[in-house]
Amino acid sequence: MKIHSDGIVSALILERGESIHEKLKEIAKELDSPGAFITGIGVIKDVVLGFFSIESKTYKEMKVPGPVELLALNGNMSWEGEEPIIHLHAVIGMDDGSVIGGHLLKARIGVTGEIFIHKIGVRLERERAEEFGLSLLK
Q: I want to staple 104 with a disulfide (CB 3.0 to 4.6 A). Which of 90, 97, 128, 132 is the partner?
């Protein structure tokens, strides 16, 4: 992973095989960012998308082995106590031109990942909402 930062916006260049979530958690701690929004593009593999069911309070998982185009990555970086929480959604392009999307539960870089972290000056905190079984932004 390579990092270029001006202190507010950081450009991460993730390398083949790296986990998007693991690297973003690592960076959250390193940058000591109170909160951030995240965008990105690239080529990813070993993708697991999730679709949240309010009734079962679980994610229905859809595995996509890839490689696939990461057309849009959007999300945020927040905290639950001392633990960084990475919440991502993705739109991915398949090799036949079709597009699918959902909550990005897991993904590894297939070729490259160009991820941008836009730091904000307010600490984003999460709190458990038992109604849904999720930790939501306060």
A: 90
The C-alpha atoms of residue 106 and residue 32 are separated, in whole angstroms, by 23
Contacts of 23 (CB under 8 A, 6+ apart): 1, 12, 14, 115
pTM for the model stands at: 0.93
Residue 66: pLDDT above 90? Answer: no
Burial of 44: CB neighbours in 10 Å, binned 0-12, 13-18, 19+: buried
Residue 25: Cβ-neighbour burial (10 angstroms; 0-12, 13-18, 19+): middle
CATH number of the structural domain spanning residue 128? 3.30.1330.80
Please report the beta strands in 28-138, taking only residues with DSSP state E, as ranges in sequence order: 35-53, 58-64, 68-80, 83-93, 99-120, 126-129, 134-137
